[in-house]
Amino acid sequence: MNNFIKRLEAFQHYKPLLQQLVMKDVKLKYRRSFLGYVWSILNPLMIMIIMVLVFESMFRFDIANYPVYLIIGQTVFNFVSEATNQAMWSITGNAALLKKTYVPKYIFTISKVTSSLVNTLFALGAMLIVFVVCHVRFNWYMLFIPVILLQVYIFSVGLGLLLAQGTVFFRDIQYIYGAFLTAWMYLTPMFYPINQLPFQLMWAIKHFNPLYSYITQFRTIVLEGLFPDTRLIIYGFVVAFASLLIGTWVFMKNQDRFILYI
Hints:
There is one protein chain. This protein has 262 residues and is mostly helical. It has one domain (2-260). Helices cover 74% and strands 0% of the residues. It is built from eleven helices and no strands. It has helices at residues 2-13, 15-30, 39-58, 66-88, 95-100, 106-133, 145-169, 173-186, 199-208, 210-224, 230-254. Helix 3 packs across helix 6 (106-133), helix 4 runs antiparallel to helix 6 and helix 7 (145-169) packs antiparallel against helix 10. The model has no long low-confidence stretch (mean pLDDT 87).
């Protein structure tokens, strides 16, 4: 408990640094972009339009309000994908600074996930446009959406810490994780209805793919106007905190050896 309190106090001490790192990441992403932050809205919109044309026309999924269904899954998956990919290189990418001065190493990983969260908040502008165009009925349950994003954020921090420490020792993780992300995308019901899958695969996705929980919570609120199933919410938080605990434990256990490999 004393160690936890000390680490929490250290985190509070370095909070301004975390804020500066997040601001730097966000500014760097859009620094040489002509459209700047507007691109965060246009990019997901364009991708969604292309995917709607391809999947709705070719596969003819019987999904009401398919553009809304698609952009919700796309936004949540892109958040996790961007956050974890950025977090993966958070330690090796700051090797020069870590060799010169003491800074809690996890700050760099958290900053990458947090900057991805900021980018996702910008992307919600694109989602809002789709909601308006597709005549989505706004409801009070939408106030729960930040809680869903919090679940995804906690999950991404844990997975990001795990990947960041692993990449220090094994650079090949980038290739393995890239292939894993591709498989993860197709095993997440982003652009297809899950009930079209075989029963065994559908059961596995519902029980072992955390993104199913987060995306389904989001869609239940927006498309059905209902509050998400409590079991999905509990599952989402349990997986998120399990990811955070495992990622933090492995990261802290190995962080003293980082200096030998970066």
